[in-house]
Write a structure and sequence with these properties.
Largest sheet: 7 strands, mixed
Radius of gyration: 22 Å
CATH topology of the largest domain: Alpha-D-Glucose-1,6-Bisphosphate, Chain A, domain 3
Distance between the termini: 34 Å
Number of helices: 14
Strand content: 15-25%
Length: 460
């Protein structure tokens, strides 16, 4: 894993099935089909059959209609190679990471497309240690998917068994609560929580209520189609309006699988993952809770965060986009805090992946400790002007266009040491994302528009 430093980067990652966060696409279209899910179950099951014990996989899902189809196909694949399957029903992605470890499973699977619209879905895999798989392991699974595995199917008396397990939501709630000091209460805080009609719709309100908060919950009526529809971390307007209307102290918005969080302060103003990391990091540093004075963030995090942290004597290491790359960097550097501007916050003292609820609880602990409004607690730095735009592609390779590459180099020179540029192909959608930041907002807008026009022409 190589940290990305400097003022600019072009990031691409091509893989047949796996992207930056598992396998993702439109449900019932390649690669999110029942046929491929069956093969993923077979291939992953074979890769993770290590030793002579009875092997088990735990499978969770979010609330999308297509999750039923993918769940059954994956189950059939795992059973066919002799792996037992434990089915949890809707549960946050970090809940699956936790259960994989606590239930001594050989593999964990989460069926979700995170913040994407309901028509999409995805498959995320976790190893027995609760961490997302490495590129090398994913490559090995891909190779098996494309092979004929008939000769490796289990004998009739060695087929796996499947069963639904109860009580897993309660286990996750208790796990999340235990990340706080036992004597800490959220009593006196009015909290609006938006669960995006997704995987956290039961556990997040319950955990906050059990901790003593006055809870107002929205986005908690999933119907298979409304996940992330006008609610959740990518659509926080409804949350902001509810916070102001109800006079709440804070609003918390999860995404579809509850592994990311954004916050709205008491004024209805949005707080992104960069500000959350800054607030938590400053508190942990003061309390001596940082294992090392450093955090890992992606290339998308604001330059203002980097300047703020370095002003505290905390180093900042940048990684490609994707929380698993952040985690890899954290483990390599010995950091216990890292995350993404989008709201994936990772705290290796507690979790092995992004956890929206746990991150929210840690922030609430800071708010209670300081006794100050969220608008003050969560404004640790002034962001450097930043513009992010996307260009949709249709299978071409506009990043390989000579004119585009020349323009990127020129823009990097224009931004200089006071700015940054990142141009990357998304690992979850067929788009190219352009992000630029500089102390001069006019320059940022200008260079991003130039790149959008060039990429659009090259992608046509």
């Amino acid at each position: 894993m190589t940290a990305i430093r400097g003022v600019g980067a072009i990031l691409t990652r091509t893989r047949k099935y796996f992207g930056t966060d598992g396998i993702r696409g439109q449900a019932n279209s390649f690669p999110i089909t029942a046929d491929l899910a069956l093969k993923v179950g077979m291939a992953a099951g074979l890769v993770f059959q290590r030793g002579d014990h009875r092997h088990r996989v735990v499978i969770g899902k979010d609330t999308r209609l297509s999750s039923y189809m993918i769940e059954n196909a994956l189950t059939a694949g795992f059973l066919s190679v002799g792996m037992d399957v434990l089915l949890t029903g809707p549960i946050p992605t970090p809940g699956i990471a936790m259960l994989t470890r606590s239930m001594r499973c050989d593999l964990g699977v989460m069926i979700s497309a995170s913040h994407n619209k309901f028509a999409d879905n995805g498959i995320k895999l976790f190893g027995p240690d609760g961490y997302k798989l490495s590129d090398a392991v994913e490559a090995g699974i891909e190779e098996l998917i494309d092979n004929d595995l008939t000769s490796r199917l289990a004998a009739p008396d060695a087929l796996g068994r499947a069963q639904r397990i109860d009580g897993v939501q309660d286990r996750y709630i208790e796990f999340a609560k235990r990340t706080l000091a036992r004597d800490l209460s959220l009593s006196g805080l009015r909290v609006v929580v938006d669960c995006a009609h997704g995987a956290g719709y039961k556990v997040a309100p319950a955990a906050l209520w059990e901790l003593g908060a006055d809870v107002i919950a929205i986005g908690v009526k999933p119907d298979g189609f409304n996940i992330n529809a006008g609610v959740g971390s990518t659509a926080p307007d409804a949350l902001a309006a509810k916070v102001v209307e109800s006079g709440a102290d804070i609003g918390i918005a999860l995404d579809g699988d509850a592994d990311r969080v954004v916050v709205v302060d008491e004024k209805g103003e949005l707080v992104d993952g960069d500000q959350l990391m800054a607030a938590i990091a400053e508190s942990w540093l003061a309390e001596g809770r940082m294992v090392k004075p450093g955090i890992a963030v992606t290339v998308m995090s604001n330059l203002g965060l980097q300047r703020f942290m370095e002003g505290l004597g905390v180093s900042v290491v940048r990684t490609p986009v994707g929380d698993r790359y952040v985690i890899e960097s954290m483990l390599q550097n010995g950091f216990n805090l890292g995350g993404e501007q989008s709201g994936h916050i990772i705290m290796t003292d507690f979790t092995t992946t992004g956890d929206g609820l746990v991150a929210a609880l840690q922030l609430l602990a800071v708010v209670k400790t300081l006794g100050r409004p969220v608008s003050e607690v969560c404004h640790r730095f002034d962001p450097v002007p930043q513009v992010l735009k996307s260009v949709r592609t249709s299978g071409g390779r506009p990043l390989e266009n000579a004119g585009v590459r020349a323009l990127i180099e020129e823009v990097n020179l224009r931004l200089g040491a006071n700015g940054r540029l990142v141009v990357r192909a998304s690992g979850t959608e067929p788009v190219i994302r352009i992000m630029a930041e500089h102390d001069d907002p006019a320059m940022v807008a200008e260079v991003v528009d130039e790149l959008v026009a060039a990429l659009s022409a090259a992608a046509a």
